[in-house]
# Entry
Amino acid sequence: MQGTEHWTTKRDVRLFLWRKPPAARPAGTILFVHGSSMASQPTFDLRVPGRPQSSVMEWFAVRGFDTWCMDNEGYGRSDKSRPINCDIANGADDLAAGSEYVLRSSGAGKLLVYGISSGALKAALFAQRHPQRVARLALDAFVWTGEGSPTLAERRKKLPEFQSTHRRPIDRAFVRSIFSRDHPGTADAATVEAFADAILALDDSVPTGTYVDMCSRLPLVDPAKLTVPTIVMRGEYDGIAGFDDLVEFFKRLPNPDKQFAIMPGISHASFQQKNYLSAYHLLHAFFSQPEPVYRG
# Structure
């Protein structure tokens, strides 16, 4: 399935978008939001020999969805020229610019928005700021206060280092560590290596802003102000998304159209796990859910 590249701007910052449309009139328009350590195409349009339907964008496009992703500023093919660390708030600004372009180009009335890890924080903050643009919101590997997160506790030990620079280096060993730190065995080696190949083809360093925010500035999202239908997705073994932390966040979401899902056998990077099809189906069910006929 062929994709098409698109470009928009946030003031004078150029932002890259990637689209895979359906063959017929779309069942909905999805905007996928990437995390802290990789650009969008490696995360959402990954090809792995021998791993069918490895691209979540293609999986949803085949099922009638118009699928989009974008590289936040500082990542992938988007602009990397400004001397800033590209924090969560800046990422939400990117989504404001990107969503405007997607809505205009696709003719969609609202978007189905999925974010993973720090991408979930960006997506939630964007939805809090622009609820009129969001039909449904999926937050995967999300963190609210950071309470109960062993991965963030370890990461805080390097906070002074992250605060001292705008970018941090990444390499193959780092990508492999994403899949070994929480619960080894949840992803197969071929997928991890293909993921690393795709990430490192675009970046050898990434911004530090999301790490600084997640280690020192949480919470960044107020659940009481998140009014759109929302699903919170957590991998069984995720070392960032603390269970009790997410339950408290979930309780405070005001919209009764909400779901909380635990994904068995999955750690942090849902779409690169052995159980990736479970994540796809869970997301599809939420994004294709009919609107309530009766609200009381």
In short: Strands lie at 4-10, 13-20, 28-33, 65-70, 111-116, 134-140, 167-169, 205-207, 230-235, 258-263. The mean pLDDT is 97.
